[in-house]
Structure formats: structure tokens, C-alpha cells
Amino acid sequence: MSFESDLEPAHSRRESAVPAPAERPPHITARDLTMAFGSLIVMRDLNFVVRRGDIFAIMGGSGCGKSTLLKHLLGLIEPAKGEIFYDGFNFTRADPDARERMLRRFGVLYQKGALWSSMTLAENVGLPLGEFTDLSAAQIRELACLKLAMVGLRGFEDYYPSDISGGMQKRAALARAMALDPEILFFDEPSAGLDPISSSLLDELILELRQSLGATIVIVTHELPSIFTVADNSIFLDTETRTAIAGGDPRELLAHSKNPTVRRFLTRGREFGETLHNG
Fold this sequence. Notes:
four-stranded antiparallel sheet, 10 strands, disordered C terminus, Rossmann fold, 2 domains, disordered N terminus, six-stranded mixed sheet, alpha/beta, single chain
């Protein structure tokens, strides 16, 4: 059995859950995007489209600018050149009020989870609801409990982050990211620090949430099992050329890319492929 066929079951479940790529309109568009810190160019001339309902992976080696690109998409860093559009709306050129309204349609899962240690899980999840809605305390509590139940944390509402495992903390942070029913979810290395079983469970949860919520998901990751399990679109950032050298479904890139840098990243030598094959 080949490396590609070993991954087929998860891929088949993923594709059956959402419309075919050609049927999904553009949700995020980057045009001629250049990222820089002063005179230091991080990445130049990035052009890509994230379709509505995609799980879009930002891939590349360490230090290539994956998290920096995520921060650009969130408006935390301004591009040196180029523009970012959401549903055709020019996010880069928008005034602060328009940007703020757009940002309320986003949910973010930070790499470390970023839960408040002095708050219970329900209080953490309810924080954005209290900040941006007029709901009563009882309604906020009810919605927070619902979001926690969606990520498998029913019964843990009154636990503190220190009371639960790292994998559970990531799920609680995901529940908080979903609090305002966002159209787009941004994940920065969601599997970082998790054991393989917890990471696999988180991948399955991401797929289930995309199916149930219909959200577009942008994920920064270098974890190959996660990339091949969840992503159906991607961009590959290359540190040597300082631009994107590949994009599309990672499985298609694995099967057809002739670029040695892309293939080296997607196979990581024989060890990864043999692990999947023998597993």
C-alpha cells in the first residue's frame, strides 16, 4: 500500500462533508502581498485564494514567515506591499471601524491557547460574548456551555485551565474562538505541544467543526499528519526564494510536485512514510 493510499480514508470523509472546491467562492484573497520588517523582506509577491469552506494550510520550514502571514491576515501587521480581501472587501485599505466589524467575524486559536488562568473554562469562553454582545449573564453562560460541549468538554465548565490536560486546554481555546460564531477560524500551530493521540483527536474535531459550522479555516502548521488529514488547500512558503513556490491540495502536491523543496517537506524522508505504511 502506498503512502498516499494510507491517507485515503480521512481524505474521503473530508471531501464528502463539503462542496467540491470548484463550487466554493473565494473567501480570502491575497494580491501581490509582500511582508517585511523594515528593509528585511520576509516573503514577497504572495498571491493566493482561500475558498469559502476551505481548510487552508500555511506550510513551510521554520522561520519562513507562516505566523507572520497569519498576523497579516488578521491585520496585526501591515503589509509592505499588496492587499488582502475578504469576500471582495479590501481589508488592507479599510478604515479602523470597518476593520473592527470585520474582525468580529473571525475566531483565533493561539499557539499556546492563551486561556486566562484565573477564569474557569466557561468564563474564558464567555469573555468575547460579554465584550461584544448584549446578552445576559445567564445567556452567556448557556452559550459558553454549548460551545464547550461542541468540543467535547461538557461537564468541565467550572474547571480552571490548570485542572485539565494540554489537549483539553486547546479544545477550550477552540471553544472560545467559536464563541461569536465566526465565519473564519485562524489556528496557529494548534497541535504544538500535544502528544500524537491528542493531536489526532484535535484534527478530527477540526473536520467535524468545519462540517457543522461551515466555517473557513486557516491553519499554520508544520505537522504532516495534520496537514494531510485536514487541509484541502494550502500555500508553501520557501525561505530560500522568499516567496510561495507551491499551492493547492497538499495531497496533490505530494503526488505531483516536482519541486525538491516541496517534496522534501511533504515526505520528510522515508521515516514518515514508513511510519504511516507500517502503522
